[in-house]
Design goal:
The complex is a heterodimer of chains A (316) and B (320).
Chain A lengths: L3 E4 L2 E6 L14 E6 L5 E5 L5 E4 L5 E5 L7 E6 L4 E6 L4 E6 L5 E5 L17 E6 L5 E5 L5 E5 L5 E5 L1 E2 L5 E2 L2 E6 L5 E5 L4 E5 L5 E5 L5 E5 L8 E5 L12 E5 L5 E5 L14 E6 L5 E5 L1 H8 L12 E6 L2
Parallel strand pairs in A: 15-16
Antiparallel strand pairs in A: 1-2, 2-27, 3-4, 4-5, 5-6, 7-8, 8-9, 9-10, 11-12, 12-13, 13-14, 17-18, 18-19, 19-20, 21-22, 22-23, 23-24, 25-26, 26-27
Chain B lengths: L3 E4 L2 E6 L14 E6 L5 E5 L5 E4 L5 E5 L7 E6 L4 E6 L4 E6 L5 E5 L17 E6 L5 E5 L5 E5 L5 E5 L1 E2 L5 E2 L2 E6 L5 E5 L4 E5 L5 E5 L5 E5 L8 E5 L16 E5 L5 E5 L14 E6 L5 E5 L1 H8 L12 E6 L2
Parallel strand pairs in B: 15-16
Antiparallel strand pairs in B: 1-2, 2-27, 3-4, 4-5, 5-6, 7-8, 8-9, 9-10, 11-12, 12-13, 13-14, 17-18, 18-19, 19-20, 21-22, 22-23, 23-24, 25-26, 26-27
Chain lengths: 316, 320
């Protein structure tokens, strides 16, 4: 009996136990996910094999990056068979070849953070996005309140943002997306909003009615919808996440997935942190379930095999 | 050397040590403040003397309510020499006579909360406001996600709200205000916004760009400005971030910022705040800010014992 979630035009069939990991392997938890032009799925996790790649049926294809990524955080797919990986524990961004993880470009100095809230790159950077011309935006992050813009070859062009709650200020810059018109969408997580900027960092608008928006995914089109993973705080109050919301380009809610409370049921979430959508509209949600478990279930050890990734097959 | 805070039309001279308490008395911390038509100041606090009344020079006038208020939370001044007190620990609202605290009306059953998130009044109710016709709004609160509307004589007319983040949903309904045109303003604290409703609970607008708006005060005029006490960041991921409060913001009737004060971080300096929770403005435009400092201290400074005395009330004299 298939479980259907979501509403309206965005309904999904849950595919349980989709990823077929090699025996004894584990994601531990999944920070981010990406899909390439063949709909292969790149799972950036915090286990011993930080990058595992699967076909769309969930068959394991290969892994890479072992020992090279202290704390997986963000994935963005490049148009040129590349993948941009953001590691907040290592304070760096790498552009890698999708085939084997060969590092093509590196931003930041691995293991060496900029001073806390200095505004200089990076202190626990979180995610990347590409402008239509190939410039690279980096959200930064836990220890800064900044967005940095780099040229395609890694030269820092400029940065914007500072701590606070006004437009253009940030309270944990956690994810970033762009669209085909060059608008920049920033998940300003602890301000409970997504801010929209032009490519020069000029504030345009904000989307509200969200709860700790954490992971963003937008199809690279004009006025795209946005898939948003939202975090909760605890399990006391219903209807505050963790959940996935799909909003239109004005931030208006189109569909929402998740139970009223955090949990381990297929229909619920623990910490939806990284989202990706493939060419068929199927959705992958990676979760930082191990990190968030103690806050949601204080005093209870987490069950073995806590789900960190699930596939949601779009119903057309 | 006086200290001036705020900006633009809303600048204030800090009046330190304004309240002259009787020897050995303490507020412990202040849930809310109100001023009457004579600019006397009513300090609803969590010490042994839950209501202490002062003149505008800070001279102690009287106290009442001893033993009757488990946890002071909200104050709203009535137009008829009455004061509405909301006690979240006791789950009740009382309309009292200003002079001596005589209870004129009581809503809720003291000590008996409604079931958690049942939507029934009350579970840790937080504040009250009066409609132009005297109907009473109660924000409720920590253990509900509701606004209740009562007739002036205490009959429940309607309720609205549920948990969530959509318009009309709440994530800790912490304070409430109503203007002479009947608009209802609700501090939806953990959604980081103030929602505006009509008198029947129909959602109209929201104000954003706030951080945990906690205490609100509005002068009783058309399209009033709003004084907002905002709590600071206390999560491990943002506790050290500057510029998120605790602070006081003054916004216009569209939610645009007019003035803001408070240091970059929580603190005990005269210019800083710990937990600005209850605000009141008198006829001179002077502002009183009550703080739940005792409760907030360990959230900002988990490794530092509370000092013997922490400020929980300060006066800000408007500079005209």
């Amino acid at each position: 009996m298939a479980t259907i979630v979501g509403s309206g035009d965005y309904q999904y069939r849950i595919i349980e136990n989709w990823a077929k990991l090699p025996d004894g392997w584990s994601f531990k938890e999944v920070a981010a996910v990406g899909v390439d032009k063949n709909d292969n799925v790149y799972v950036f996790g915090r286990g011993e094999h930080p990058m595992m790649i699967f076909d769309r049926a969930g068959n394991f294809l290969r892994s890479w990056g072992e020992g090279q990524y202290p704390r997986a955080h963000g994935v963005h797919m490049g148009p040129d068979d590349s993948i941009y990986l953001t590691d907040d524990g290592g304070h760096f961004v790498r552009k890698c070849r999708i085939e084997d993880g060969k590092v093509l470009l590196e931003l930041g100095v691995p293991g060496v953070p900029a001073p806390y809230l200095s505004g200089e790159p990076f202190n626990r950077c979180t995610h990347t996005a590409l402008s239509p011309s190939g410039d690279i935006y980096v959200s930064d992050g836990y220890g800064n309140a900044r967005v940095h813009k780099y040229s395609p070859n890694g030269k820092l062009l400029f940065s914007w943002g500072e701590p606070g709650s006004d437009p253009g200020q940030f309270n944990l810059v956690h994810n970033i997306c762009t669209d085909a018109d060059g608008w920049v969408y920033v998940a300003d997580r602890e301000n409970h909003r997504v801010q929209v900027f032009d490519g020069d960092g000029k504030y345009e608008t904000q989307w509200n009615n969200l709860h700790r928006p954490c992971g963003l995914c937008m199809p690279y089109t004009h006025q795209p919808v946005c898939y948003i993973g939202e975090l909760s705080v605890n399990r006391l109050n219903a209807n505050l996440g963790p959940r996935v919301s799909i909003v239109d380009n004005q931030g208006k809610l189109l569909s929402r997935i998740g139970d009223p409370f955090a949990g381990t049921a297929p229909t619920s979430f623990i910490g939806p942190h990284g989202l990706a959508v493939d060419s068929r509209g199927d959705l992958y949600v990676g979760e930082v379930c191990v990190t968030l478990w103690p806050g949601l279930f204080p005093g209870q050890p987490h069950p073995p095999g806590l789900r960190a990734l699930q596939k949601y097959e779009r119903i057309h | 050397m006086s200290i001036i805070v705020g900006t633009g039309d809303y600048r204030y001279r800090i009046v330190e040590e304004w309240a002259k308490l009787p020897d050995g008395w303490s507020f412990k911390e202040v849930g809310a403040v109100g001023t009457d038509k004579n600019d006397n100041v009513y300090v609803f606090n969590r010490g042994d003397h839950p209501m202490m009344v002062f003149d505008r020079a800070g001279n102690f006038l009287r106290s009442w309510g001893e033993g009757e208020y488990p946890r002071a939370h909200g104050v709203h001044m009535g137009l008829d020499d009455s004061i509405y007190l909301t006690d979240d620990g006791g789950h009740f609202v009382r309309k009292c006579r200003l002079e001596d605290g005589k209870v004129l009306m009581e809503m809720g059953v003291p000590g008996k909360p409604a079931p958690y998130m049942s939507g029934e009044p009350f579970h840790r109710c937080t504040h009250t406001a009066l409609a132009p016709n005297g109907d009473i709004y109660v924000s409720d609160g920590y253990g509900n996600a509701r606004v209740h509307k009562y007739s002036p004589d205490g009959k429940l007319l309607m309720s609205w709200g549920e948990p969530g983040t959509d318009p009309g949903q709440f994530n800790i309904v912490h304070n409430i205000s109503c203007d002479p045109d009947g608009w209802v303003y609700v501090a939806d604290r953990e959604n980081h916004r103030i929602q505006v409703f009509d008198g029947n609970g129909k959602y109209e607008a929201q104000w954003n760009n706030l951080h945990r708006p906690c205490g609100i005060f509005m002068p009783h005029t058309h399209s009033p400005i709003c004084y907002i006490g905002e709590l600071g960041p206390v999560q491990p991921v943002n506790r050290n971030s500057p510029n998120l409060g605790p602070r006081v913001s003054i916004v216009d009737n569209k939610g645009n910022l007019l003035s803001r004060f408070g240091d970059m971080h929580a603190g005990t300096a005269p210019t800083a705040f710990l937990g600005p929770h209850g605000l009141a403005v008198d006829s001179h435009g002077d502002l009183y800010v009550g703080e739940v400092s005792w409760t907030q201290w360990p959230q900002f400074f988990p490794d530092t014992p509370r000092p013997a005395y922490i400020r929980s009330l300060q006066k800000y004299e408007r500079v005209h």
